[in-house]
């Protein structure tokens, strides 16, 4: 996370310089501009606790890798079992995970886990869903035109045309699409703007405009949106964000329950 750059004197020591646990005062030490935080989250109870933070000003893949291994070892020595590692989908993090043994680039040797440094168990990688859906939205919004594996176009203009139509008519087709969702650049950090844009309600609105209203500006949008439309992202986000453990809960928000396993794996087969 980004932090305000400021040097202060605390207990006869200057703080806010780069500190990775082996802080040594010297004239060349840089002022920290970020804090790398490690947090343990319990999966069978409702608690989480930060276990370490490091003040940094840039960090190499090797340095980040070593810190991850140190934290895993320390937590293991305390008696806790770590089953997964969650982080943002930044390229530096993906490179670090690759150095640990993961493989995200080769579909034939796809591997989303690495060996725990202190035992023979696997640590599974779980990229933060909130950050990933923002990356998807940012990519479509920046490039404007993408193609799926079948050659169907994924165009940003469909979202823009839907917004223009709703603004002109003064009505909304049961979705939350507004100007802030299209001009999102000043609010890139807001997850709800990405999830509401790539939602089931927006997907249904686009298909309605093409098939029922037969509007020319939405021609062929259904070639993609009917097969792998934003509703898939909506459901995927519910799955990976789900935390309920009650068997009688309904929908994808139940998470990875055995009762919903079949539906979930059908959904993941789309990607």
How would you portray this structure in words?
There is one protein chain. By secondary structure, the protein is of the alpha+beta class. The chain has three domains: 1-59, no CATH class; 62-122, no CATH class; 130-269, no CATH class. The protein has helices at 61-77, 91-100, 129-143, 157-169, 179-182, 191-197, 200-211, 222-228, 230-241, 261-268, and strands at residues 8-10, 13-15, 34-41, 48-56, 84-87, 113-115, 122-127, 145-147, 153-155. The strands form four sheets. The protein has a three-stranded mixed β-sheet with strand order 5-7-6. Helix 3 crosses helix 6 (191-197) and helix 7 (200-211) runs antiparallel to helix 9 (230-241). The longest helix is centred in the first third of the chain and has 17 residues, at 61-77. The chain is globular, with a radius of gyration of 22 Å.
Give the strand tally.
Answer: 9
Radius of gyration: 22 Å
- Name the beta content range: 15-25%
Mean pLDDT: 82
Provide the succession of SSEs. EEEEHEHEEHEEHHHHHHH
* Whole-number tally of structural domains: 3
Helix content: 25-40%
List the quaternary state of the chains: single chain
